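Problem statement: downstream parser choked on a complex file, so we are re-checking the raw output for the zinc ion run. The parser issue turned out to be on our end (a line-ending mismatch), but while we're here, posting the original submission so the record is complete.
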Amino acid sequence: MKTYFSLILLLPALLLGSCKGQQKTDGDAAASDTIPLSQVKFNADSAFAHIVKQCEFGPRVPNSEAHRRCGDYIVSAFRRLGLQVTEQKADLKAWDGKTLAMRNIVASYLPEQTERVIICAHWESRPWADADPDSSKHRQPVMAANDGASGVGVMLELARLLPQLNPAVGIDFICFDAEDYGTPYWDAALEPEDGSDWCMGSRYWSRNPHVAGYRARYGILLDMVGGEDARFCFEGISMRYARDVMVRLWDAASRCGHSDLFQSREGGWAQDDHVPMNEVAGIPTIDVIPFVEGEHTFGATWHTVSDTPERISKTTLKGVGQSLIQFLSEEQ
Ligand SMILES: [Zn+2]
């Protein structure tokens, strides 16, 4: 995933939008007193254990043995929790001419329920740590504890809690492949202008959903949800297509005490899996992605060899997971 610099000109319109969102959040403060807090407790140790497990396979770079074994692990972990798993496999041609054996994994809770929501994340690792402060590491793969495994870890812990939570809708957890295969800077000449070197798995799914005629109320994308320096703000594409969902999630986070983590302010632009979900699949989808001021927009370990389990914060995992539980408990 990368920053969407080209859309910076649209910023004034979005700033206006996020101000409105802020007012709505404040205006709802009194009403929120009457919304009960969910008694279901997200266990950050459990989410963290799933992150460690994924990383033990090694960097899950497409076409690697670690990638195949971790995919098997994710499939069996969701099945063990009683979800129905659908795998989507295709050979996709990447920007460098390589054919990637793509594997999207969809785990469905209450598959017969017609009203559905999506929670999703990418699960594979970027092959190049091209933002590492040490340029000699740029061609090494990223372990992707945060930028990959964290979203899956949170989803697996949520899946464990769904029978207790008893949501009013069916839920599809989608693990997208080949999100982070975008062109590294040394091959910039080969970079496709339309950004199609990123988000390959979600682009494929958006054109070919796992169920014909698939519909969902909305989607929530989790990308890098375990960083020690994470702050989640109103990302621009999310606000354009799914402002209501974003404000509702931030309100739910505030209700359960996580307004320090989910901040109601402008949060940049991300070229991420939610773009094809919004623009191709037509499902309003938000991106829960860090917005860190300064040099590293997505956090200090983004696309570096330091994106390891040691740098994951259980406090961040807990804040994200508990906020999602509260949000889902409020779904009618
Ligand atoms: Zn990434």
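For whoever reads this later: The chain has nine helices and ten strands.
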